[in-house]
């Protein structure tokens, strides 16, 4: 039986009732994807995720990945390899390919819904494979003619790709990368160095692996300087290949030299990879310019959103498993005994269990709404590009929300899965009999890779807020103002709480901006930097609460007109919006008070005082 519990009903609510995607689907450039066609895609994706991809979930976790140091090779467990190969050939990855290669333009909102279903079912497999279309897209957009052909070969032969950034002494500080790239007379480059934490760095799933490697050019005018600006992006295959047919040739000089042993996502091979040594690691500069960090960030931005979706998807199935357990687990007498409940009751009848379930439900549904709201900005961007322009406001909003999605969703999902979802099962949740313990282990990494939460907080504040003087955030807050200030008395309390939360976040940004100062006065920046992660988390709470309240307003109207079969769904949506406003948004002003008391005492403490 599948562990995975999807929530298609909530996905459809967000798409068509909250975000109005039925006005976008079926119109250029998404003419092939009408609302009915999107419904069919969702049904088929849910069926595949639940009935096929999810079945190897626990086997993938418990069977060991094997590393042979003598041959520098990694072997995947049989069940993992079979499931991953099936997913690779299933066609679901084609939804993310460029239209020029796939023949279809799929709305980003729909693509992210499908991605949620796949990640919730068995994250270890799609979290690596879903990078393939992004590398294909980058090669197609930035590459030379032969590299655009490589993009086609990757899809035709189902080759794997990797993102190769991190080094043993250059983790979060990408600018400290030391891997070198030496130019050769034939136009190729020889790479030398060691990389770490490379997902799918080696394996026996595909015939070839195309590594996208950040390295520092040597002896080239205008390239290879210090910091991230001196990095270039190189295409380095595991095997050389015929550029026309894709027929494999000799082994290239890139080898797995270690395999990491991890807390979670254990089926996905994470490797140390060495370039050069006995044989040169031959690579090619991506395109014709040295713009490595800029090019790589086209993939990183996608992967950061992918991480947030993975976290949300895992919390969603964790919550739905917990709800199912709470409905069926009979334990304990009710606080108030009645003739209708004279004996033990399902634990969902206990008030604290209900509080816990609502906490899980609200955050899972709030984060889904946050992600799809950001994806709707991507819809706007693609529509504008099809018309030969760029929707700059949508682009700025999307950029603003990316660190929130990555940081807020990963931190919140990890916390709620452990504090609430697993807790619902009591001691049984600690056992391998239920999927919760694996959910908790698999989700922790989301707060770490592709930039830790602290880095996301600094990125949000210093790049997304300070650089544009808060314009993108203010436009978002103005939209929230409309929800807070307009409406009937039904949600008067909740709208007042939203108003207080909006005002508090505005004041937080003003406070931190004043502390951050100008480029000529940086001495107080450590004071501001103590609270940038907290700002990120509160913006996440606020956006989720706003979207949940909007959902509650829609649901309240539907409860009096909808069929009985759907009435409880809408009652739940209305209750969720109320609960989140009263118990989460209500706490945001207190966070402002705490930030106002932040002092320089902490940064002035000597190391030995810790």
Automatic annotation (TrEMBL):
The keyword Flavoprotein applies. Pathway: Lipid metabolism; fatty acid metabolism. Residues 291-458 form the Acyl-CoA dehydrogenase/oxidase C-terminal domain. GO terms for biological process: fatty acid metabolic process. It is an enzyme of class 1 (oxidoreductase). InterPro entries: Acyl-CoA_dh-like_C_dom, Acyl-CoA_Oxase/DH_mid-dom, AcylCo_DH-like_C, AcylCo_DH/oxidase_C, AcylCoA_DH/oxidase_NM_dom_sf, Diverse_Acyl-CoA_DH. Its cofactor is FAD. It comes from the Bacteria. Keywords: FAD, Fatty acid metabolism, Flavoprotein, Lipid metabolism, Oxidoreductase. It holds the Pfam family Acyl-CoA_dh_M. It catalyses: dodecanoyl-CoA + oxidized [electron-transfer flavoprotein] + H(+) = (2E)-dodecenoyl-CoA + reduced [electron-transfer flavoprotein]; hexanoyl-CoA + oxidized [electron-transfer flavoprotein] + H(+) = (2E)-hexenoyl-CoA + reduced [electron-transfer flavoprotein]; a short-chain 2,3-saturated fatty acyl-CoA + oxidized [electron-transfer flavoprotein] + H(+) = a short-chain (2E)-enoyl-CoA + reduced [electron-transfer flavoprotein]; oxidized [electron-transfer flavoprotein] + hexadecanoyl-CoA + H(+) = (2E)-hexadecenoyl-CoA + reduced [electron-transfer flavoprotein]. One of its GO terms (cellular component) is plasma membrane. GO terms for molecular function: long-chain fatty acyl-CoA dehydrogenase activity; medium-chain fatty acyl-CoA dehydrogenase activity; short-chain fatty acyl-CoA dehydrogenase activity. Its EC number is 1.3.8.1, 1.3.8.7, 1.3.8.8. Residues 479-606 form the Acetyl-CoA dehydrogenase-like C-terminal domain. Residues 163-275 form the Acyl-CoA oxidase/dehydrogenase middle domain. Homodimer. Belongs to the acyl-CoA dehydrogenase family. Acyl-CoA dehydrogenase that exhibits broad specificity for linear acyl-CoA substrates, with a preference for long-chain substrates. This is Broad-specificity linear acyl-CoA dehydrogenase FadE5. It comes from Rhodococcus opacus (Nocardia opaca).
